[in-house]
Automatic annotation (TrEMBL):
The lineage of its organism: Eukaryota, Metazoa, Chordata, Craniata, Vertebrata. GO terms for cellular component: beta-catenin-TCF complex; chromatin. GO terms for molecular function: DNA-binding transcription factor activity, RNA polymerase II-specific; RNA polymerase II cis-regulatory region sequence-specific DNA binding. It comes from the Eukaryota. Residues 46-60, 452-469, 498-519 have a biased composition (Low complexity). Residues 19-45, 62-80 have a biased composition (Basic and acidic residues). Belongs to the TCF/LEF family. One of its GO terms (biological process) is cell proliferation in dorsal spinal cord. It comes from Erpetoichthys calabaricus. Its main location: nucleus. Residues 1-11 have a biased composition (Gly residues). This is Transcription factor 7 like 1a. The keyword DNA damage does not apply.
Length: 567
DNA sequence: GTCCCTTTGAAGCGC
DNA sequence: GCGCTTCAAAGGGAC
């Protein structure tokens, strides 16, 4: 869902924060949004299950869809109530003032009373937060909170067979992980699930070598680095995780002193990457989950580096690897959201193709409320902070060329005339979601977001933004036909976005070159922290009005559908 | 076995 | 400053 871009200027987008435009009316709106999101999923489900149904009659399906979508709003509202309650509490204390993210109960509900075992190991209770369910998830009551712990390790990622055990997977674990590639689907090997006895299913005291990747913490290291998530540090000032007997192998040893942080830094940390290898050790000496072992990541270049195979001596190889560790980029807000929600989407529908799931996630992302998105933006910002602190010299440029070399080459060719496109490059724009379904979303990704007149968010995102951008009018079908291999996104930087959106942006800047002009530009949140209260009030008023427009536009979606199908 | 697809966002580079 | 490119996650599908 796009954010307001109230012409705040570049600095507004710089902080990756958003204004909390929350008001009483938003609850209703959020419910509506989530019903819509639920509808999206239903659509996808039905469309995929019943393949023959596709495209028969967009208008008809649209008519059918709306009532169907409201069939069971309760199922979505329940968790939403929970979430709303958290939101309300959050607002009482100011936005992001308190440690908790309302949507991150694990941040608030660590068992601070007894988070540790006597030996310093993390007690099962302390891990509770890791396995708690995301409130947005359709958890039947709160029963799943602790039950899930017993059955599933909290660090299991969304690669877990979520379809089979969707409610046992903590969505936040993938949310804030630097790498969960270690999480094997299906029954994880015992060494990958150190917390649960594979036989008894009872949490067990992990072997130091097993535990350490998750919550090791050096007491001495605590506080050495300014905590980027200091606002999340428990009031007690007590580190959430103590140093395991084996010492640390935590990716962020100095920073993993609270649940959020620990989750943030540890869950992306793969046991595979547990610094058995020198190349997993950052130059600072701090192992980091973002440092990917070539053996794991299978990078094209380094993949062949193997002391046993290579003629080079292991020492040389080591040196080489130490020279160029692959430090992953910090995840952005959407990536964090994806990691969290993927499991849910996969669990809720039969979809398995990530491309399709990502489309859904993209739509859901836009349908998120600003507060919800704000969580992820904030989390992403913290992660970037953390990343930058751990790797001051690291640049995103460092990873250029380390991934998908071929693709890049083909991309170079893609800059040439289309005739030179390889068949593979031409294979694009697989429409995973039926056109009418795509439009169904309040603000679907890419195409729908920018092209669909039904994208209310785009129109309402900025007071100055004209309702339909030129691209919306000119390319109502861009979703189904993408001109280039990867035309989507290319969103301006936050600052640019704000500037662009504040001055009827999409008509001029974003549409000039790329057909993938997108109003996702408008989806950038306004850093709420940078706005004065008065502005917030004004923005809130606007937001309310915008929400009305939003709903109005939603009602008008069938029209846009007809238009699209006619095209 | 490798790459593509798909999503959004961040960062870097070139003009 | 703007536009474009690359990468981040994920996993089924295509080749």
């Amino acid at each position: 869902m796009p954010q307001l871009n109230g012409g705040g200027g570049d600095d507004l987008g710089a902080n990756d924060e958003m204004i909390s435009f929350k008001d009483e009316g938003e609850q209703e709106d959020k419910i509506s949004e989530n019903v819509s999101a639920e509808r999206d999923l239903d659509d996808v489900k039905s469309s995929l299950v019943n393949e023959s149904e596709n495209n028969s009659s967009s208008s008809d399906s649209e008519v059918e869809r709306r009532p169907r979508a409201r069939q069971d709003p309760e199922s979505y509202e329940k968790p939403r109530d929970y979430f709303s309650e958290a939101l309300r509490r959050q607002q009482d204390g100011g936005f992001f003032k308190n440690p908790p993210y309302p949507g991150y109960p694990f941040l608030m509900i660590p068992d601070l009373s007894n988070p540790y075992l006597s030996n310093g190991s993390l007690s099962p209770g302390a891990r509770t937060y890791l396995q708690m369910k995301w409130p947005l998830l359709d958890v039947p009551g709160s029963a799943g909170l602790k039950d899930s712990r017993a059955s599933t390790p909290g660090h299991l990622s969304n690669k877990v067979p979520v379809v089979q055990h969707p409610h046992h997977v903590h969505p936040l674990t993938p949310l804030i992980t630097y790498s969960n590639e270690h999480f094997s689907p299906g029954t994880p090997p015992s060494h990958l699930s150190p917390e649960i006895d594979p036989k008894t299913g009872i949490p067990r005291t992990p072997h130091p070598s097993e535990l350490s990747p998750y919550y090791p913490l050096s007491p001495g290291a605590v506080g050495q680095i300014p905590h980027p998530l200091g606002w999340l540090v428990p009031q007690q000032g007590q580190p959430m995780y103590s140093l395991p007997p084996g010492g640390f192998r935590h990716p962020y040893p100095a920073l993993a002193m609270n649940p959020s942080m620990s989750s943030l830094v540890s869950s992306r940390f793969s046991p595979h990457m547990v610094p058995h290898h020198a190349h997993s050790i950052h130059q600072t000496g701090i192992p980091h989950p973002a440092i990917v072992s070539p053996a794991i990541k299978q990078e094209p270049v380094q993949d062949n580096i193997s002391p046993t195979i290579h003629s080079k001596s292991p020492v040389q190889v080591k040196k080489e690897e130490e020279k160029k560790p692959h430090i992953k980029k910090p995840l952005n807000a959407f990536m964090l959201y994806m990691k969290e929600m993927r499991a849910k989407v996969v669990a809720e529908c039969t979809l398995k193709e990530s491309a399709a799931i990502n489309q859904i996630l993209g739509r859901r992302w836009h349908s998120l409320s600003r507060e919800e998105q704000a969580k992820y933006y904030e989390l992403a910002r913290k992660e970037r902070q953390l990343h930058s602190q751990l790797y001051p010299g690291w640049s995103a440029r460092d990873n250029y060329g380390k991934r998908k070399k071929r693709k890049r080459e083909s991309k170079q060719s893609s800059s040439e005339p289309e005739d030179n496109f390889s068949s593979r490059n031409k294979k694009q724009c697989v429409q995973y979601l039926p056109p009418e379904k795509m439009c169904d979303s309040p603000a679907s990704s890419h195409g729908s977001m920018l092209d669909s007149p039904a994208t209310p968010s785009a129109a309402l995102a900025s007071p100055a933004a004209p309702a339909p951008t030129h691209s919306e009018q000119a390319q109502p079908l861009s979703l189904t036909t993408k001109p280039e291999g990867r035309p989507q996104h290319h969103f301006p930087l936050p600052g640019k976005l704000s500037a662009a959106s504040s001055s009827s942006s999409s008509s001029s800047s974003s549409s000039s070159t790329s057909s993938s002009t997108s109003s996702p530009l408008l989806s950038r949140p306004i850093p709420f922290s940078s706005l004065p209260p008065s502005m917030l009030t004004t923005a809130s008023h606007f937001h309310q009005a915008a929400l009305h427009s939003h709903h109005a536009l939603l009602q008008s979606q069938p029209l846009s559908l007809v238009t699209k199908s006619n095209d």
